[in-house]
Amino acid sequence: MSDTGLVLKDVYRVFPGDITAVSDVNLEIENGEYIVFLGPSGCGKTTTLRLIGGHDDPSSGTITIDGELLNGVSPAQRPVTTVFQHYALFPHKSVLQNVEFGLKMQGMDKTAREQQATAAIELVGLSAMMHRKPRELSGGQQQRVALARVLVTRPKAILLDEPLGDLDRLLQMKMRVELRGLQRELGITFIHVTHNQEEALSMADRIVVMGDAIIQQVGTPTELARHPRNEFVAKFMGDNNVLHGTIESASGGNVVINTPHGKVEVPGSGTAGEKGSMAIRASAVNISTDAVPAVNGVRVRLDFVEYLGDSIKLHLDFNGEPFLAKVDEERFGEVQAYEGKEVTATWSVEDGHLLEQ
Amino acid sequence: MTYIWYLIALVLLVIPFSAMVFLPINKSKPVLLGFFLIFIVFMYGPMMTMGVLSFQGPFGSMTLPAKDLGSLHWFTELRAESSLMVGVRDGITKSLWVSLVVAAITAVLSLSLGMAFRRQFRGGGILFYAILLSLMTPGLLLSLGLSFLLYYIGFNKGEGMLGYVPIIGVQAVWALPFGFLVMMSVFNRYDARAEEAARDLGASSFTTFREVTLPLIWTGVFGAGLFGFTLALNEFERTFLISGAINTLPLKLYIITSSSVLRPYVYSLGVVTIIISFLLIALFLIVSAITGRKKALAIEEDGSGVDDLPSMTAAAASGD
Ligand SMILES: Nc1ncnc2c1ncn2[C@@H]1O[C@H](COP(=O)(O)OP(=O)(O)OP(=O)(O)O)[C@@H](O)[C@H]1O
Ligand SMILES: [Mg+2]
Predict the structure, then answer these.
(1) Nearest residue of B to residue A85 by CA position?
(2) Ordered per-residue pLDDT tens for chain B, 320 residues
(3) DSSP string covering chain B, please?
(4) Which ligand 1 atom minimizes the distance to the CA of A20?
């Protein structure tokens, strides 16, 4: 076990009524990493964050930061601070008073803390609004105040619960870049919770995918996008097609799976006769009017062409099951002509990959 | 024929309700406003009779119709009743102090109860209903029982300051459920995340309470106190049998109206006491408004203010 960074070991949180919100969480976070917890609603993201922040206690397991045990340490004493969902600013205090609060609690004298708070407010670009109340600020501005309020206390790690959830899409995009830039500049560990996979992919050093109270997979954005470990991750990361079947043969580093819709060959190893599932990304699927090949090709009907601006998403019907493909924007005229018709979807062996059962 | 009146009452209830339910807001508003006015008339009507009868001339009577209206005769008469006036003035002073103490007790206890009920605790449900149940106990019986108990334990009623203890006690018990309900509704709408944030930033429980909780619920606490104050000021039943020699204003008024030959100056007395009560409530509200305003001002002087508004709208317009 590493003795720097934040380490969660065998962490469980079971609520009364036998509700397991967090189960068997093992995670090592390096100092200065930007970590994103990603998962559907109710999967335990907020609970995990609360356990790290000290707002809730694990039923079992340990949490340490730089080798120091955090279990039982009050939120006030922990070197981590939280940017709460919906920000939780003090509505009766001005921006300056909000930001200097943490320093005031540390017992810093008035001039020093005002100076530091002012600097933090400047950092997030709100100098002009220092004396406003939170209700006189837009959502994005409130968000920055919340950020300045925790930054000023110089924590080892900042926990952010859906920090962009309350913002409109344009502002979200802007804040993604800003948050990321700020984190790089400060070199502080950020742990960011979201259920938006695009947000996770664009911001994280590493993504922790949670589902059904457990960690489903931990990896860099590219690892998760290219190699989802299991069906849950493949489906949650979006735009993945999952095929199930029985392994027919394994040779030369590839396995052939016999699915109800035809044979597919994917890199990996397995035992003939066992169940096998594979995932193929929509963007790796090509469509044409060619004949169906013996492997890695299916006959589908093109139901609907979705134009996305920089690419085209094709909603295909695969014997009643949905199947997705994504092609270049330039092919719009061509693929539109296929709408309602039967086409062949193909992909190359190395783009597919085997999922854990 | 009495059924006609039931019918009228029913219609009076049904009309505003159906206006509220079936009409769009802009149409139901005048209807509801009209009914609200009727309600006000019923509420203040009896008081107005008293007011009217107090302004009669020297030959005025105790009952309507009023005679020679527009005279302050009975107010002068009232002032001439010096022993009565001394008693009333004494009653007002005593009621005032008692009510203030009850207000403070109600505010503090309601606040602590409200804080306690923010968390689930064993027996919380039972306690909740027990508190509300005290609203339903007949006040007079409570007073009777308490007076026997006080006698039994040898608590000599009415001796010195100690005599105030049972009075303040019963009145605070009476006001508490109201204050408690105020605080329950305050905490119902209260967002505890700001507190969590404060603790996260290193505030102790007490600091969190002082810096975050109290400023946010202060108006509620004040409301609970105001309930205590007004309820205590008017309290009669519960105070009646345990007050000993201490006559609060309602008791004094009762003694006056039940023991002397009634002449219209009692109406003048009624008018005067009502005016005094209104002034007290107004004072309370003004004080609260001023403290609220002071806080706002303190922050404005800090540098922010109305002139900041244009830059805010500009920022909003820039999509930020
Ligand atoms: N105090 C609590 N008591 C009982 N169950 C709880 C409590 N807090 C959370 N849970 C349950 O634990 C599970 C995880 O909740 P959590 O808030 O961590 O989800 P989340 O991943 O943050 O979801 P969202 O994306 O909707 O915010 C949920 O099933 C929730 O109902
Ligand atoms: Mg959550």
Answers:
(1) B193
(2) 678 888 888 887 888 788 778 888 788 888 888 888 888 888 888 788 888 888 887 777 777 777 777 778 788 878 887 778 888 888 888 898 999 999 999 999 999 999 999 888 888 889 889 888 888 888 888 888 888 888 888 776 556 777 888 889 889 999 999 999 999 999 988 888 899 899 999 898 899 999 999 998 988 898 899 889 989 988 888 888 888 778 888 888 888 888 767 778 888 888 888 888 888 888 878 887 777 666 555 544 443 333 333 333 333 333 33
(3) -HHHHHHHHHHHHHHHHHHHHHS-HHHHHHHHHHHHHHHHHHHHHHHHHHHHHHT--TT--SSSSP-S-S--HHHHHHHH-HHHHHHHHHHHHHHHHHHHHHHHHHHHHHHHHHHHTTS--TTHHHHHHHHHHTTTS-HHHHHHHHHHHHHHTT--TTSGGGGHHHHHHHHHHHHHHHHHHHHHHHHHH--THHHHHHHHTT--HHHHIIIIIHHHHHHHHHHHHHHHHHHHHH--HHHHTT-TT---HHHHHHHHHHHSPP-THHHHHHHHHHHHHHHHHHHHHHHHHHHHHHHHHHHHHTT--GGGHHHHHHHHHTT-
(4) 12
- Identify which of A18, A20, A22, A46 to mutate to test ligand 1's pocket (most ligand atoms within 8 A of the CB): A46
ipTM, two decimals: 0.75
CATH class of the region A6-226: alpha beta
Mark yes or no for CB contact A90/B212 under 8 Å: yes
Determine whether the interchain pair B201/A81 forms a contact, defined as Cβ–Cβ distance below 8 Å. Answer: yes
pTM over 0.80: no
- For A239-354, CATH number out of 2.40.50.100, 3.30.980.10, 2.40.50.140, 3.30.1490.20 equals 2.40.50.100
